Amino acid sequence: MNPEYDYLFKLLLIGDSGVGKSCLLLRFADDSYVETYISTIGVDFKIRTVEQDEKTIKLQIWDTAGQERFRTIASSYYCSAHGIIV
User: Does the keyword Ligase apply (predicted)?
Assistant: First the structure.
């Protein structure tokens, strides 16, 4: 059985509320931009597949809520992440 990708990386977007984490994710994953502010509740994620050196890389990018009340939810995602974008 051959997977659709050669590598899978889980990345987290973390930062304070309202700094643009969701906008960054939408631009990178969907090439879209939304001018209205919609607060992330808990966590959200998007997938983008890229090609590099004839390898298919699947990026699973998680958008975490910046509000203090969701910090415990977001911190549970840290242990399996390959990278964090602040």
Answer: no
